[in-house]
Amino acid sequence: MDVVIKHLYKSFGDNHVLRGVNLSVEQGKITVIVGGSGAGKSVLLKLIIGLLRPDKGEIYLNGTDITKLNEGQILPLRRKIGLVFQTGGLLNSLTVGENIALPLKEHRIGTRREIEKIVAEKLELLGLKGKENEMPSHLSGGMRKRVSIARVLALNPNMILYDEPTAGLDPPMAENIDTLIMDLNKRLGVTTIVVTHDLQSIFKIADTVCMLHKGVIIESGKPEEFKHSPTPVVKEFLHRLNT
User: Fold this and answer.
1) What is the pLDDT of residues 60-80, one digit of tens each?
2) What is the pTM of this model?
3) What CA–CA distance (Å, rounded) separates 150 from 241?
4) Spatial CB neighbours of 87, under 8 Å, sequence gap ≥ 6
5) CA 146 → CA 6, 11, 156, 187, 203, distances in Å?
6) Are 7 and 59 in contact (CB under 8 A)?
7) Which of 32, 49, 103, 127 registers the highest number of CB atoms within 10 A of its CB?
8) Distance (Å, rounded) from C-alpha 115 to C-alpha 30?
9) Nearest to 22 by CA among 45, 4, 49, 42
10) What is d(CA 138, CA 191) in angstroms, rounded to the nearest whole number?
11) Residue 137: exposed, middle, or buried by beta-carbon count in 10 A (0-12, 13-18, 19+)?
12) What distance in Å separates the CA atoms of residue 136 and residue 147, rounded to the nearest whole number?
């Protein structure tokens, strides 16, 4: 799934978060979006998946402008996009298996046995074989993150959006999640968009790095190009993350 965003605006009252974002995301590649706190990165992800509506602008998913669609029309497209929330978004009252099965049951996909098979397959893919009956509260932060990714994969998305996937994880576990994101991107061929502050992640996983600043994309390029950008805001951002 490819994404083309044109002149995108979004405000919340007097807070003008996005002020004319233009962005192209290449199909099957990993695009990393960076920027300061409050720059609108998470808002942009929610706009791409249709959870928020822009004030102005266009969002094309595989050539279809979703800003022109109503909720019923956008739902089939949304099923093909997975969003991994920063917090994971797991329900602590449900087992791991029940959490992963939830979107399948909501969309009435498969019989009970078919759902159980899908859950088992996704857990094995994420290195969590046999964890169906565990409770999320009994898992480590890294394992909970993997379960949230498994839940997204249950619907076989064409695109996965990650909101700060390594936040709150220790360096070894963060590195494992980065490796997992790259592995899934290659094995499944999914278009991947990652919002992160993690400097190691930026230069390990990205095919393209984009910086959101004051409501617009001010820099976009390959990781090495971004690392050596002459743009003062980018240089300051990288210096701040390095210190």
Assistant:
1) 999 999 999 998 899 888 889
2) 0.92
3) 30
4) none
5) 33, 33, 15, 16, 21
6) no
7) 32
8) 29
9) 4
10) 31
11) exposed
12) 8
Q: Which residue in this structure is represented by tokens 């996005």? A: 18
Q: What are φ and ψ of residue 32, in 5° steps?
A: -105, 130
Residue in 211, 227, 215, 208 with CA at minimum distance from that of residue 25: 208
Structure-token match 């300061």, residue found: 36
CB 81 within 8 A of CB 49: yes
- Torsion sign, CA atoms 134, 136, 141, 145: positive
- Residues 201, 189: Cα–Cα separation, whole Å: 19
Residue with token string 């998913």: 61
